[in-house]
Amino acid sequence: RGIPREPGAHWTEPGCQICTCQGGQVLCDAVSCSIPCSHPLPAPAGGCCPACTGCLHEGVARAEGDVFSPSDGNCTVCVCLAGNVSCLSPECPPGSCPSPSPADCCSCTPEKCNFRGRTYVHGARFSLDRDDCTTCVCQRGEVECSFTPCPVLDCPQHQRHLGPGQCCSTCQDPPAPAGCFLDDNGVEFPVGQIWSPGDPCELCICQADGSVSCQRTDCVDTCPYPIRIPGQCCPDCSAGCTYMGRIFSNNETFPSALDPCLSCICLVR
């Protein structure tokens, strides 16, 4: 699209496409989104992935830490934490049912909850199927379950790891590079390897972090007619002389190309 990109560069194109420059080609793929919360907000303008800073509950955006009541009321209070919505009903002492006053939240509070074949007392908290990542509570005869909020990670997706029995992923350090891999010819050099990429005046070395550092050799001509040897970086002034496209050895005499009465000699100094 008219913009030069360096080898290995990554950027995002419109339409949530992540692109990479590899070997002179542009490879694009759809942005992969990881949504570690139950009520994410839609992607912000110019973004690709939903956000877990805030919550979207019943079509209404809620700010982080916002406490609110759901649309059906029923004295339930909800809170938005890290993209997760947790709702609880007020704890009330056991009462009689039905209530003569619907406005009284504590007029009818069953003492126990029946959930998946087990009975829980009012206010009891327990895990769902022995999963510590989900917490349930018995309120007013009903069971409310919510996910454990997880911190927002600042590492890329391929460096995230979820261990056995863990609720939230953690960042892992990337493995140390074993060498330098060149996409243009598919050759991998070990750390410390020195090579020439094709220009005899340029030498490259594979650094410990997997990067390649190159440096050119500056040649200084010490004679007016140096000899250039194929495959050698700097001209050679000790092997002879170059004159009118021809190579003459040291102390060799030859006629001048400008005047046949003149004789020339190659002197290496």
Automatic annotation (TrEMBL):
One of its GO terms (biological process) is cellular response to virus. InterPro entries: vWF_C/EGF_Fibrillin, VWF_dom. It is found in: Secreted. The keyword Signal applies. This is VWCE protein. Its main location: secreted. Keywords: Glycoprotein, Secreted, Signal. It holds the Pfam family VWC. Residues 1-53, 53-114, 111-172, 178-238 form the VWFC domain. PROSITE patterns: VWFC_1, VWFC_2. One of its GO terms (cellular component) is cytoplasm.
